[in-house]
Every structure is written in C-alpha cells, then in structure tokens.
TrEMBL record:
Belongs to the enoyl-CoA hydratase/isomerase family. InterPro entries: ClpP/crotonase-like_dom_sf, Enoyl-CoA_hyd/isom_CS, Enoyl-CoA_hydra/iso, Enoyl-CoA_hydra_C. The lineage of its organism: Bacteria, Pseudomonadati, Pseudomonadota, Alphaproteobacteria, Rhodobacterales. Gene3D superfamilies: 2-enoyl-CoA Hydratase, Chain A, domain 1, Lyase 2-enoyl-coa Hydratase, Chain A, domain 2. Keywords: Isomerase. It comes from Paracoccus subflavus. This is 2-(1,2-epoxy-1,2-dihydrophenyl)acetyl-CoA isomerase. SUPFAM superfamilies: ClpP/crotonase.
Amino acid sequence: MTYEAIQFGAADGVATITLNRPQVMNALNSRMRHEITDVLSGLSADIRCVVMTGAGRGFCSGQDLTDRAAAADLEGTLRDEYEPMLRAIRACPAPVIAAVNGVAAGAGANLALAADVVIATESASFIQAFARIGLIPDAGGTFVIPRAVGMARAMGMMLFAEPVSARQAADWGLIWEALPDDAFAAGVEARARQLAQGPTSAFRAIRAAVEASFGNDLDTQLGLEARLQGAAGRSADFVEGVTAFLEKRPARFTGR
C-alpha cells in the first residue's frame, strides 16, 4: 500500500508511524485507519518496537467530522474500520508506544490509549470530547479508561468532556509518563530503543498475561502465568539474560 495519511519509517528495530494530516490535527479518516491497520499487520520480523505519533502540533483530534460517509453509519465505521485498527495495535508482535506530542481528542485519545505504553509531552492533553456532539466515547475508551483511572474519574472525563493535562493523566495512571516538552523527543527515543533491545517474546507474554488478568480468577491467572513462564524459560533470551547476569554485563537480547 502507498501511504498518504501516515508516514512510516524503520531503523534499528524501531518502526515509527506518524499520523500525517497536520492541517486537520491528524483527524482520523477512512484512509488513515486502513493505513494504520495495514502497516501494523505487515511489520517485518526485525521490528521490535513501534512508535506512533502525530505530525505537527497535535497527536490526533479524533474522527474527521467532515467525513460524511462515516457520519452516516457510525456503527458500521466502528465495526469495519476502527475495530480492525485497534485489534492490530493489540496484536502487534512488538510493543507499541504512543508518543503523544499534543492534543489527543475523542477517538484520537483512545487510539493512543490502545498502545502498550503512552508517553506524552507536558503540553499535551487528553479529551473525551464525544458528549460535546451528542455521542458516547468509542474506539475502546469505555473499556480502557475506567480500568485505568476508576469509575469516578472516567465518568467525569466523559460527561464533562474537559481536557485532562498530560501531567494529570500521568498522576491518575492513565498514561505512563509526561515529559517536559524539550525532553520529549529524546525521552521517547530512549524508551523505544530500550524496548527494541529487550526480550520481545517476553514482552508479548507480559501483555497477554496482563490483559487476561481482568477476566480471570486467581487460580486461572496462576495457571496462565505458569504456562507463559514455562515458554519464556525455554527462550534464547532467558538463557542470555541469566548468562549476562552471572557475567555482570548487559544482556544482548535477540527477541527469541
């Protein structure tokens, strides 16, 4: 696919997806959703971290409200375009960082929150803006946000539709960290490099275990942990990790 609504690049095991409609604050249209899904579904085996960010001064302003086809069938658009995109993020074989470089509103906020880790610049904000136009939060927002911040804060975000600053989002546990604007790019790069040099298969198992924990009782979760740990213990990365520990040197993980 030739990408028009996003930019894609890869170097040193890190793939970068840049939402690239800065003239409309990277609003999501059909083309962008399909391109994000396509690129995440076709990553090469050497990609060990994905960074998703926005061009210009914002991350993503949400659904493009000038897209009349989407507005005419919101249910169909969510099922046919948003759901595959969000599932592609969750199924990505490498950990995904959302690098929120500015406003993340509506479905744009929930696109960011679908990532494994969210890092925002301090001038960024998160807005569940749906109620302003008579809609409910979608794109996974009603699933992710209450689990991250609790019922009271989730309801306040969604009913009042007020911006939550990056610093507040970090304090609430909605995102991993908020960085000073002048340290944001370097901070994201360092985090991406750290993940790209890490034990990729173990990262996938961590994601699987954490996601399953919300629906499992303790006995079921303990059984899952044992199975996943057994597989991790047979990996080359485990052998390398133990060897590096005993030799008092940094581990050189291969992701296998």
